[in-house]
Amino acid sequence: MLFRGAFVHCPSLGVVEMLSDHLLGKAGFIVHFAPATTEHSENLIAHSSVRPVIIPSGNFIMPTFCDLHLHAPQYLYQGTGLHLPLMTWLNEYAFKAEERLDNDPALARTVYERLAQRLLESGTGAVLLFGTIKEATNLILAEVLQEKGLRGFVGKLSMDISSRPTYQEPSAHASLSAVHSFVESCQHMVSHLPEHERLIQPVITPRFVPTCSDELLLGLGEMAESRSLWVQSHLAEAHDQVEWVKRERGVDDIHVFERNHLLTSRTIQAHCTFLDPPSLSHLVSRGTAVAHCPLSNAYFSAKPFPLREALANNVKVGLGTDIAGGYSIDIMNAMRQAVTVSRMREGHRIVAMTETDGDGAPHEVNLSIDWKESLFLATRGGAVALELAGRFEVGAPFDAQQIAIFDPSCADGIGGIDFFGEIPSLDMDLLEKWWCLGDHRNRRCVWVQGKVVFEQR
């Protein structure tokens, strides 16, 4: 199949390429991508058995979003309980909801089917998920994602310590056995499919240090290493959690993960708000990525993530919604929140500098990011963390979404985007307007591995 029209992607941080009148050829993968007027493109069009799909004026195709941190069972109570501190919130809401789904397979399937649909409506094509502690419930989640065509990295929670006695695994040995069984079952679920159609992968998932014994963490690290598995957890997230780890383990949680072989090039750690510069450098040395969740950090962390410092240090960073610690499932909101928080950090830096030396000049690195950088984090940044492409290039999976900003037939914008007078051409100003004001109404179609998984009706 051939598509002809405008394409947008972010090949590197801060760079947005708008490629007008390009031709993209795809099956499950991209087999051609070049200006439509090149000789090769014209030959493809001439010899194709079907005419190219023309992307209408006012529309463009861009990569799907990657969500690097989401608690699937917590979608059950999305948008509630956010007045509480983290450790209390976990006891009052999170553990109860997860236990409820573990005890009700029918409810779990209903919640996960709705979650998958909402993610696709929001343009998310790949998602890294925390599940529950029960193997069967996580297999339901994996099955739903595969059926819906959503690229899913699924983590069965490991936790042999809990403040809720009814929601924990009986021992480190039992937890490790359950993880081994889940990994085997998850991989077997898709083993009959061609490799490129296997959309789900199991992920080693110690919830965080307060819920995992050293014995369990070491066993998980050895399993991840021996089987080249993905790892996800929470790192240096909230003040009460950080202090708990220091008090109980005697060191920061980054050192606990390190000594148990859980900081790898296939590890994604959520939050990391309390990491200092040497710790960020340590993540770089291990190839570990960060899932930046600005909304949930505002609720549950006493400080924001040092995003600019991490990017300047070449830390791999993508965005996460952190449902239900964050209330919005839409990565577009995570992009906007990332920019907002960074601008507040930069303002605080300038004010603090002015108050101390009377000079507000930017002697240090500007801590704010702009919309272009956030778009990179939402697409290419998250994709790199998951060893995906996140941009248009030959050989990459065709994971894409079609965005409609205006309708030239009626000379008006789409969704919440309005125009007064002549509608402008598709340019960077118009892209920024969509970034600020766009929502699900602008999303016409979503493809994952070349297949339509969502279409606006």
TrEMBL record:
Domain Amidohydrolase-related stretches: 60-453
UniProt xrefs under Gene3D superfamilies: Metal-dependent hydrolases (3.20.20.140), Urease, subunit C, domain 1 (2.30.40.10)
GO terms under cellular component: cytosol
Keyword annotations: Hydrolase, Metal-binding, Zinc
Gene Ontology MF, one: zinc ion binding
One of the GO BP terms on file: guanine metabolic process
Keyword Zinc applies: yes
Family annotation (InterPro entries): Amidohydro-rel, Metal-dep_hydrolase_composite, Metal_Hydrolase, Metallo-dep_hydrolases
Cofactor(s) this protein requires: Zn(2+)
Name of protein: Amidohydrolase-related domain-containing protein
Lineage, top ranks: Eukaryota, Fungi, Dikarya, Basidiomycota, Agaricomycotina
